[in-house]
Design a protein that fits this description.
By secondary structure, this protein is mainly α. It contains 5 helices and no strands.
């Protein structure tokens, strides 16, 4: 019975199965994904905090944090699957993260600003390495 079940399974095509001991995502890419995920969390929390204050002066912070979080989140699956568009999106993400960091510094949201600067730098490095 066991032999029959084994024989009915198709053999993997050559080169299609990855070595089970190799990580799916390389360490450098995983570090970037982790930095981006942290930035998403910080930006979402910052936007929520700013919105709860009801201060019109924080509108730009809310918008930039939302844009930054959306772009960081969009980069993650592209990076994980090695998309040819990763570098382009990471460059745009770096620009948004930098603008967000500047606005968060202006409004005193230093924790978010630091996460955004770290993400901007990591994205620039990735985009530059792919160029």
């Amino acid at each position: 019975m066991l032999g029959a079940a084994r024989m009915s399974r198709p053999a993997p095509a050559r080169g299609h199965w990855k070595d089970p001991h190799m990580p799916l995502v390389d360490d450098r890419t995983q570090q970037l994904i982790d930095v981006l995920a942290d930035c998403v969390a910080k930006c979402e929390a910052c936007a929520k905090d700013c919105a709860s204050q009801g201060n019109a002066d924080l509108a730009a912070c809310i918008t930039l944090c939302s844009d930054c979080a959306t772009l960081c989140q969009a980069c993650i699956p592209l990076l994980a699957r090695g998309s040819e568009f990763s570098a382009q999106l990471c460059q745009t993400c770096a620009d948004a993260c930098e603008r967000c960091a500047q606005e968060c510094e202006r409004t005193g949201m230093t924790e978010c600003a630091e996460a955004c600067r770290k993400a901007a730098e990591a994205c620039r490095q990735m985009a530059g390495a792919s160029a």
